[in-house]
Amino acid sequence: xxxxxxxxxxxxxxxxxxxxxxxxxxxxxxxxxxxxxxxxxxxxxxxxxxxxxxxxxxxxxxxxxxxxxxxxxxxxxxxxxxxxxxxxxxxxxxxxxxxxxxxxxxxxxxxxxxxxxxxxxxxxxxxxxxxxxxxxxxxxxxxxxxxxxxxxxxxxxxxxxxxxxxxxxxxxxxxxxxxxxxxxxxxxxxxxxxxxxxxxxxxxxxxxxxxxxxxxxxxxxxxxxxxxxxxxxxxxxxxxxxxxxxxxxxxxxxxxxxxxxxxxxxxxxxxxxxxxxxxxxxxxxxxxxxxxxxxxxxxxxxxxxxxxxxxxxxxxxxxxxxxxxxxxxxxxxxxxxxxxxxxxxxxxxxxxxxxxxxxxx
Amino acid sequence: xxxxxxxxxxxxxxxxxxxxxxxxxxxxxxxxxxxxxxxxxxxxxxxxxxxxxxxxxxxxxxxxxxxxxxxxxxxxxxxxxxxxxxxxxxxxxxxxxxxxxxxxxxxxxxxxxxxxxxxxxxxxxxxxxxxxxxxxxxxxxxxxxxxxxxxxxxxxxxxxxxxxxxxxxxxxxxxxxxxxxxxxxxxxxxxxxxxxxxxxxxxxxxxxxxxxxxxxxxxxxxxxxxxxxxxxxxxxxxxxxxxxxxxxxxxxxxxxxxxxxxxxxxxxxxxxxxxxxxxxxxxxxxxxxxxxxxxxxxxxxxxxxxxxxxxxxxxxxxxxxxxxxxxxxxxxxxxxxxxxxxxxxxxxxxxxxxxxxxxxx
Lengths: 361, 361
Ligand SMILES: Cc1ncc(COP(=O)(O)O)c(C=O)c1O
Ligand SMILES: Cc1ncc(COP(=O)(O)O)c(C=O)c1O
Ligand SMILES: [Mg+2]
Ligand SMILES: [Mg+2]
Ligand SMILES: [Mg+2]
Ligand SMILES: [Mg+2]
Known about the structure:
Largest interface: A-B, 66 and 66 residues
Helix content of chain A: 25-40%
Largest sheet of chain A: 7 strands, mixed
Strand content of chain A: 5-15%
Number of strands of chain A: 13
Bound molecules: pyridoxal-5'-phosphate, magnesium ion
Oligomer: homodimer
Structural class of chain A: alpha/beta
CATH topology of the largest domain in chain A: Aspartate Aminotransferase, domain 2
CATH class of the largest domain in chain A: Alpha Beta
Radius of gyration of chain A: 21 Å
Number of domains of chain A: 2
Shape of chain A: globular
């Protein structure tokens, strides 16, 4: 069974050993005679899975006490609304407009008519090709929202801004567990699972409990307090996705945790960025000081040649290299589970393609 | 690999052939070199899966034009809030309080301060042991909400009420595709997938498009119009669960569709109800004219004996027979995928247990 070189931005490649484990347990998890898909979420077998998953994530990210870990549904997109509902206390809220997803977060806050919303910095006028400079402030904000890694544009915050009176809320969908972060720098971290963690349909929220508003009664499913009180088992959770996430966390831990992963990701991304830099055909649209470790766009500057590259790459088994429709060109998403070997093969193909086609640029 | 007799109320047993298919495609779906878990939801491979899933469901339920089929996240519990948000137009709304889940739907509508809400009928005073009589009305309601099958209490509507000026909204979580229904009798049908359809984390909504309100701007993820406009691909859907659902729909169609399933379910439930009726030890707490085909509670009338029954059953591989904590006793959930043979074995065990323990009642 030949596995693809799958550069998808999400849902994305998962560790082969995890898929093999899932496969082997499909009809009977630990001799239970049931698939995890078939297990009551109130069973002791499943309760062990979800509590192991939480414990492993706490270990991997070094999550301090006072922070709750929630396993939710709805994707990162539902968090765009749940965050203002749960953390907004009528004070100011700030947003950094660093990419297409940040912009969606902003527009959802607007739909909720969040009072006192400010966009504190933006790189939209330059097509989000860099992380904008964030002004210092000691004013109080209920929260300031950032997108640590901008999946579509391939930019990432290199340092997390700190404010005295404003907790940082971070959409970490596309680089959770891929970059080194100190959870203490954040009031809330959220991420859709479908890039670095597991199947789509699971959303991780890590929230400092004392930031949550207690004034407004919210729909139960949209209220973090509901899920905190019920250990993410208020209603039926996306149990199978949580099980796969647990296996991914185990895989990650076995490989040496986030530290080891960052090293590998730096090697993978380093190789690809070097190839792009050294090439006369390919270039990066992203400012050098803003580059992502996980999502790496590149272009030839010629749309037809881009299309030709993607087509030939696809026929060779390098899948999903087409850039997002809003950006064009190519994008290689190389999350934790993407092997170094695959990046190496891609760079070799890029060189071969350049030797053959570079002159037609 | 011995498979359990899994009577779980949800997540629940799935067809063995579906699990085997999922297993065989785990590392490479149709020679793609990718698991469905790893596939971009914008890929043609996945688009085929979701559109096949919709097509199959439309066929199985005979869903008329004018009704949209949505694949959402958040469980049936999130629909308790999305329904009043999306169908409430400021007119009256009615609820039938027929069980614990119906009651939750009511309490979520209250949280939203839905104006003009009326509970039109209730059997709560009698522990929800029957479906309450529903008063006729020709007054206008934005909708009237019913729970076709009350999972916890084991009751089901035997006929769907019809009103001239009030579309019926139905929580069909625990008997969608298990009972015979005419979609035309409903304005909206919703169901969590984890009983009759697939893994938890997927919610099906079938909605008559012209009932949706257009006055209020809602958070995008909570707005049916968002998902209609984007064919359930506004954000990353629970793609793997949709894939499993598709396989379950195929399995169901191969077996002869809902008609065939109803016949099998009547045989399974008939056998169990007969056994309960004929027994001096076991009895059903549910009124004869309100009984569910899919969730069948029974009791000995003696808590210790109930516990003993559940314990011995468990040791013999009859799993998850313990009744819901709010009701006690036993409950056998026998959804579409639960085999007749398993019900037969259970009834034989019940008889053996009665022969041995009946005298201690
Ligand atoms: C940074 C970021 N935020 C949010 C989203 C939206 O996530 P979801 O599809 O889970 O709603 C994505 C999806 O790719 C993303 O990359
Ligand atoms: C009839 C009914 N409605 C709603 C629910 C809640 O569903 P979920 O857990 O998907 O939110 C259930 C769950 O068992 C149910 O049986
Ligand atoms: Mg972006
Ligand atoms: Mg270059
Ligand atoms: Mg109920
Ligand atoms: Mg009896």
